[in-house]
Amino acid sequence: MNPENARPIATTTPLPSKVVKDDEGELVAAAKAGDVSAFETLVGRYERKIFRLTQNITQNREDAEDAMQEAFLKAYEHLGNFEGNSRFYTWLVRIAVNQALMKLRKRRPNHVSLDEEIDTGEDTVPREVEDWGPSPEQRYEQTELSGILGQVIGELDPSFRTVFQLRDIDEMSTEETAEALGLSVPAVKSRLLRARLKLRQKLSRYFRQGEAS
Amino acid sequence: MKCTKVWEEISDYLDSGIDPVIRAEIEQHLLKCEKCRVVVDTTKKTIDIFCNSEPAPIPEDTRHRLYQALERKYKSCRP
User: Fold this and answer.
1) What is the ipTM, given to two decimal places?
2) Residue B75, Cβ neighbours under 10 Å: how many?
């Protein structure tokens, strides 16, 4: 999709989100009226989440930086097209996803579309069912744990990890995630289920009982 | 209810977005199936551990380039 076309799908009421703060609408209105500092408040609020998103999709630092930068520039340039029918953050995510996918396609031209049919087969059927230790977080140093989480999520197909990030890491609602990615709600639910089961399986390598830390 | 059905419903079960009848069937199944109890529990832990992870700060040079680009954009256009 052309990012310029990444306009919000009309909804009757804004959807709930734990990501978005109450003053977002005011900041957007001020930015539209030419208040640069209001726009920069929005950038500062979301830059880390957007960078993590573009990193998760592209799995490449340089591409992630470019995609994040392009997303914020396009958001500013096209802010006049944003009608407020969805959250600004949802609209921004949609632009960022498109930018990141364009980068990914340049590197892997035979890959990637988030709405393509994907294999949802046997690899998500739970095989390892050993219980985990009581507190996986306490078995690893924070930096080591971050490395493990980055490693396992990077092993997922982009269409899984993007849904997982928006839904479970950024805590967007299923409906917002569907809107941001241009997917149906059932498609988001299906991918989320597969992503969760795949990640559970992968993390079991590190967290199962008796595994040395 | 079979184990495979439980696995298909795990997401909705953990998100509390499930039909109460199916929820009751799953909970009945979990009482007698240790394998599924472990799968449900470790799937919940998977979500929790990622959910609690804060995004790392953007590297300063990356952030600097972002704000430089925005400065140029502010001069060249208005929303």
Assistant:
1) 0.86
2) 8
